[in-house]
Amino acid sequence: MNTSSVVIKKAVAFLSWLNYYFEYSLIFRAFMVVKKAAGSSAILQGFTSTEYRDYWQGSLIFKFIAFITSGIFAAIGWCVRLVVQWNKTSLNSRAFAACAAVAKRDTGFISYWNKAFYGCVPARLLRWYFGEATGALKLSYMVFLLGVLVIPSPMWNNMFLLLSAVFFAGVFLLQWFLLTGGKEKPNLAHISPALVLFVFFCSLSIVTGYGGGDSLRVFIIFFACVVHSVIVSFVFRDKNDFRLFFTMISVVLVVAALFGFYQFAMGIEIQAAFTDLGASPGLSRLYSTLGNPNNDAQFWAMLLPFVLAVAITVKNDTRRIVLIGAIFIVVAAFALTYSRAGYIALLAGIGVFVLMTAPRLVPIGLLVLILALPFIPAGILERLFTLGQDTSSQYRFLIWGGVLRMLEDFWVQGIGMGPAAFIRIYRSYAHPLAERAMHSHNMFLDLITHSGIGALLAFLAYLFRLFKRGISSHMASEDSEYKIYMAAGIAALAVFVVFGVGEYVWFYPRVMLVFWVIAGLVASMAGKNNVS
User: Whose CA is closest to 218, among 205, 228, 227, 231?
Assistant: First the structure.
């Protein structure tokens, strides 16, 4: 007898019974009235509209970008065809043809050597890697992302991120030319004009700001993350890709969580940099591969909705139980980071996920959350109750005041990307008790501080478009599995927004990469339904 199947069936039967009585309750009827009224509102209709408008592809900016990229691709394609044509008549080609002719005879030492060379594992791997559409590229990218998130902080170097962007962009272009001969043009329609403007304003702040070489360094890291986002949106294109990618994310999170538990078991030193020892004496906060409890909480919270999506959509009961176990492991590690912004952000993300996939369960979920309060560990509740009272919270308020005073002089052009510019300019506006800040601890304040009002507005427009495309695609799709995947993407973006209120999420490059990978996945999933 399959015990796991019986348990799952019992749980489903109980939820069905609970849902049946809930559907006929006054609470549900009131909820449906509110839902109907909200669905006819102008604000939500702007998000859920699936009407395709070709403003972007018809704009001068898009035509200019398409003209430049078409010229670059045409030039590279011409070079590739020239090399291929030259190779056909070269001595090199004749030599290989002669070797092949000898190999066909199946005699002699040359034939043996030729077979050994073409049949060896490295040669087979090269033919497989560059011969398939993007299968090998997908696999290698997922392995790369696994490495990015599980490499311990002392071993990490930002050069890995830069070199990987160059490598994967080069491999993608090479595969594209090998498969299409350079005759087809890549579809740039899903690249948002707001993203182009955002990158432009960020690059402009290098010149107008005060960070110098440090601003250039931070911009290069930022641009590498954007390149990764574009690569993800091009390479991962169908439901099988998303399913495999999200399963890999589950493995990444479990490995990172287990590493965090190992550190916790070995003993994590209590650090005043992570905790107000006056408000929370003796509090040891778990951190894993990223070396900071807030950074680890950020990437765990943003990626957890994808693990939940895979656990819901998987068809095999055993795999579902394994994934549910993975969720419990990651949530336990996440809870021990004692990140208050993380708790709030993850609850917001899960709330968005439930609202998009099973809105009828929202009132039940709120009731369960209230009933679960007495069972939440006292340490977590005490940590939440210190919000706004401890020096960490008050420190942020003081920083925000100094940043707002600074923005009175620099709101148009910004001061430049990176901590060097912030440290240099902020001190003149800082409160005496908060002079040593490296950023404002607020995602949106940091954007306008670094690159000006234009960058902030462009990024908000980019975020709005991601949300709109994702929600519209979710509403338009008839594929239940795809709808759950898209809901996970929107929930991850919601986690980013909520977390960004109390933290500068992009301060650590690996967390910045996680956001841009998620943005690429949402853009790709929305592009599957051709939603503008």
Answer: 205
